[in-house]
Amino acid sequence: MGRFASGVAVATSVLRGHDVALTVDTLTSVSLDPVLLLVSLHNEARVLEGVLEGSPLGVSVLAARQRGLAEWLGEPGRPLHGQLARIPHERGQVTGVALLTGVLASFECRTYALHEAGDHTIAVVEVVGMLAGPTDEPGLVHYRGRLGELR
């Protein structure tokens, strides 16, 4: 799948009272009515733990200039506390979940369905709030094991 380019986003949830975040590159639109997204989360991800405990899910679509942020949030073993302490973010108006600022788009979501799939869980989530960012910036893309932008 390394030869299939995919956009990069950050998924957020709340686990035991702490914001947790994870870089994801499996994000797709599933339905327009209701508006559903699919996000694939590793079974050991803290973001998934939060979702399983009932937390809403935030999805922030990254711009190419946010590569460093994607790399930081993609590193395993980050401490539970303060994952977003130095990352600009705001609270979603509908669910209160953390949404990164300066992104291309962000979505507040509630769980619609969860499906176990090997070492990941496919989260189908319903969009309950959305913010659009700048439309003229290139998005961050994952291709052949690297992060970059399409030219």
TrEMBL record:
Keywords: Oxidoreductase
GO molecular function: FMN binding; riboflavin reductase (NADPH) activity
Keyword Oxidoreductase tagged: yes
Keyword match Translocase: no
One Gene Ontology term from the biological process aspect of the record: pyrimidine nucleobase catabolic process
Domain Flavin reductase like: 1-149
InterPro entries in the cross-refs: Flavin_Rdtase-like_dom, NADH-dep_flavin_reductase, Split_barrel_FMN-bd
PANTHER family: FLAVIN REDUCTASE, FMN REDUCTASE (NADH) RUTF
Protein name: Flavin reductase
Species: Ornithinimicrobium pratense
